[in-house]
Amino acid sequence: MGGITGAAATAGGASIASAGLGIVSSVMGGEATNAADQYQAGILSEKAQLGQTQAVEVNANSVMRLNASLGNIDAVRAASGDSPTSPTAAALRSVTTSNADQNKAIQIGNILSQSEMDVAGANYLKSAGSFALSQSILSGVTGAAGTVGKTNPANLSAFAGLFTPGAAPPVPV
Amino acid sequence: MPELLPQPPPLVTTQAPTLDGRLPVHAGDPPEVFIEEANLLAFYSELIARDVRKINAQCSTDAELHVAAAAYIAEIGSNIPDPIIHAAVRRLAVLKFRTIQRATV
Fold it and tell me: Closest approach of chain B CAs to the CA of A71, in angstroms?
């Protein structure tokens, strides 16, 4: 009889310990997911910085060459007597400009939408990390409650003496 | 006293000048302008190809490469006052990212 009571008490204690461990492991899992998402967002931000830095370097290194080319273009135009006010040139410019403007608008639109998507992706990762953390806490608490709920209360009767003042402790077998 | 011919209306050019007051490269330019433009793009092409290889080497996933390429393309040529050449340089960068990535995969 006493052996059965001791075994039940051990089982009840084990189930409570298991529930506690479930909470801890779930919270730790959420923290790990959160950390991974934050890390990934940081990496993406770092790579965007890398791309921008490289482009800025090219812009800076090509200034002299760019100015020389633009100067040569002006010189060629002046030497060939190309007048910006000639009607033919104006008509050609009009068509070329509208085509170029259209292309530019499309390109810039694509680039802007892409960068918005990148920002949205980074924000998503950050919020997903927080969400994973809160969900893991909730999941841990729910799992623990479920485990305690499934525990047979009769198995806990052996602990009753522990919480009753003046009661004799259970006799170990 | 000869009768004066009516004067033509002043020509209004539809093309806005560039940031530095120049007219952009246009279809009415002499061929030498396009040769100069091509040489400038060839110069940019070498720099961009070097950068694209460097960025490819430093990015381990497609997502990282995508973000770095978008940032690069958004910034490249931002100091070029001529919108036509600016657009060409950007397009060149897009092309380099596509071809070099495809070649290395």
Answer: 10
